[in-house]
Amino acid sequence: PLVDDILNVTGLQGKELLQLYDVAGKLVFTRSATNYQERINISLLGKGTYILRVLDKKGAEVQSMKINKSN
């Protein structure tokens, strides 16, 4: 969930790749997970809709979610 421009990603194994895309498909953020829960600060991103993809170590998508940033 998104709270105060912080995106909390839970249920991880600690080895996934987190990728955030804008609606045009441009990769705007990427990071390797190192914990079972990751916090992503998206305060510098503009207002709009983003897609978070969580990939396992083989590159397969294990989770995807739409994020609507309103400020």
Question: What characteristics describe this protein?
Answer:
four-stranded antiparallel beta sheet; mainly beta
| Rg over CA atoms | 11 Å
Profile the largest sheet: 4 strands, antiparallel
Shape estimate: globular
What is the tally of beta strands? 7
Structural class, by secondary structure, is: mainly beta
Percent of sequence in beta strands: over 45%
Description of the molecule:
The protein is built from no helices and seven strands. The chain is an all-beta fold. The mean pLDDT is 93. β3 and β4 form a beta hairpin. The chain has a four-stranded antiparallel beta sheet, with no helix packed on it.
Summarize the entry for a quick read.
The chain has strands at residues 2-3, 6-9, 17-22, 27-32, 38-41, 48-55, 61-69. It contains no helices and seven strands.
How is this fold's topology laid out?
Elements: E1 2-3, E2 6-9, E3 17-22, E4 27-32, E5 38-41, E6 48-55, E7 61-69
Antiparallel strand pairs: 1-2, 2-5, 3-4, 3-6, 6-7
